[in-house]
Amino acid sequence: MIEARGLCKRFGAIDAAVQVSFVARDGQITGLLGPNGAGKSTCLRMLYGVLAPDRGEARIDGIDIRGETSAARARLGVLPHAAALYGNLTARENIAYFGTLQGIGSEALAGRIEALAARLGIGDFLDRRAKGFSQGQRVKVALARALVHEPGNLVLDEPTNGLDVMAIRNLRALLEGLRGEGKCILFSSHVMQEVAALCDRIVIIGGGRVCADDTPAALCERSGAATLEEAFMRIQGGGGALL
Amino acid sequence: MRAAWTVFAKEFLENFRDRRTLVSALVFGPLFGPLLFGAMVSRSVEQSMLSADRVLTLTVSGGERAPGLLEFLRSHGVKVNPVSLSEQGARSAVRRGRAPVVLLVPQSYAARFEAGEPAPLYLVADSADSETRKIAARAGSILAAFGNSIAQLRLQGRGVEPLLAVPIAVNDVDASTPAGRAVAILGLMTYFVLFALLMGGMYLAIDATAGERERGSLEALLTLPVPRAALVGGKILATCAYMCISLAITLLAFVTVSRWLPLDRLGLSSDFGLGRALAFFAICMPFIPLGAALMTLVASFTKSYREAQTYLAAVLLVPTLPIAFASIYSLKTKTSLMLIPSLSQHLLMTSLLKDQPVSAVDVMISAGSSLVLAAGLFVLTARHWRRETMLG
After folding, report:
1. Side-chain-facing half-sphere of B303: CA atoms under 13 Å
2. CB-CB: which of A70, A76, A88 is closest to B14?
3. Tens-digit pLDDT profile for chain A (243 aa)?
């Protein structure tokens, strides 16, 4: 479970997050939806502990994320925005690096990498250097890296950016599979269709504030709109340009 | 500690596969210095041989008017090149470099010499040229010796004890050792050692900090449950490892190059063998974590690979400052100076090269001050990594 409790963050004169509170529950996919610059990444960065909130707190399974060695970090897998791999390392070495830093012993690690490779379909290029990978291959390996310590919670910041249709479908299937295992998945996107197709719950964010937090059906109903896109436009007040 | 080791192993491997890092760390840095040093030493030895051992050739105009002088010159090993030039001609010959120095014997010479009056001679030289200045000085001292010998003969001829005309005898005692004269060259050699050492870790320090951020792999790394100090420590350790390799290659290259160099002609210990190289390695070892921490700290503050390169190029010059200072003020090894990193290493290595004794206390102070400063910089770097501005 991932909880944002009254998160506030200011950068100079800009309020990037104002009293952001929401809960992403286990066994659900929660979508953080908002236009570019709405403060999605800032919120996620506070949740996965690389930005310190000015006020409020971020909790993973009830544990505060603050502190470099917080137990919360070990329960969390993260795919940051535009996450890159180490080009001179192979996919296997990239995954193993993070696994070792998560404290997994080398024998257990080898087994997990094989299992992840089979699950994510990265076996073919597991021992190739990451330098020449396609965007789709890169995201898969980065995802394997985020899952190597078998976290109960997963945060993905715009994971579908730059992926083709096939790769997006694969990712969707993967996230649904993880949900089936009872994991808590929180991901951000500015692509409406993705969120509509995948999420159990949607948190709409704009100008650093939570505008709505509900199930897709409830959002439509509440705003009297037929489609989620329309509901989104009404809730946002037409302020955000969405693709 | 395990995390630091993991980071170390990954950085070491990743950079080992990077051609740019390898070439600069293990080829360009370590070999550039010794080769340049070799070229400079052989040139300098060549020049010192030029002035001391070469036969002095003197262009003499109007020599037929002074047969005694010519004979004296020849008996002192001077090769006389007789010409016939006016004063104007002599000046232009010197100015155009056709003769380094011209000795003009004017027409009045013979008559005044016979009359026992001061007989004029003109030594035409270009004092702006350091080479001809040396030749002119040699010619001048031979001419002075000729004058003295004539004076003594004349006094004797008049029944005067010649020694009466020599009330004092000034003896030049040259206290400079050849090694002292080679101080500039020594400064170069020790600088090349320190330069190669820093160069060896420079690209890794950049790659592991500014490079990691620019490529976008840093953020994921910072989400892990690992103390930032361990991340920084591992990166600094990997930088140290490359610096050690680079230093070892540099010293081996110096060992190889010095086999071909007549170092003993400069008064330096002629054998720069493996033992000497090991001693150098030991002296420089404490400087390695200091350089690695400094480069990692500076690179951590920069926003991009390119910016880091610019700043670290300046860091490469930092060890020159104390060394240049030492050369200008001709500082000698002193215990208080052992507190200054890079200067202390320079002075200790210089002492070893000059075959002077090196005290264990000095070595320990030098190592201690470098390591304390390194620890301080490490703490600063780790603190910076805890800030969220690290994300850029």
Report:
1. 1
2. A88
3. 999 999 999 998 889 999 999 999 999 999 999 888 888 999 999 999 999 999 999 999 999 998 888 899 999 999 998 889 999 999 999 999 999 999 999 999 999 999 999 999 999 999 999 999 999 999 999 999 999 999 999 999 999 888 888 888 889 999 999 999 999 999 998 888 778 888 999 999 988 899 889 888 888 887 777 777 777 777 776 444 443
- Domains of chain A in start order, with CATH, are 1-75+153-243 (3.40.50.300), 78-150 (no CATH)
- Both tokens assigned to B153: 């003969």
What burial letters (b/e) apply to B348-365, b meaning 16+ CB within 10 Å? bbbbbbbeeebeeebbeb
Structure tokens at B272: 């720069």
Considering only alpha carbons, which residue of chain B is nearest residue A71?
B225
Domain layout of chain B by residue ranges: 2-47+179-391, 55-173
- Give the count of Cβ contacts less than 8 A between chain A and B: 78
Which CATH fold topology does B55-173 show? D-Maltodextrin-Binding Protein; domain 2 (3.40.190)
Phi-psi region of A210 (alpha: psi -120 to 50; beta: other; left: phi over 0): beta
- Residue A203's H or E segment, with its range, is strand A201-206
Place of tokens 């009830």: A62
Between vectors from CA B388 to CA B386 and to CA B390, what angle results, nearest 5°?
80
**ipTM of model:** 0.92
Is residue B219 within 8 angstroms of chain A, CB to CB? yes
Any chain B CB within 8 A of the CB of A76? yes
Please count the residues of chain A. 243
B14 touches chain A (CB under 8 A): yes
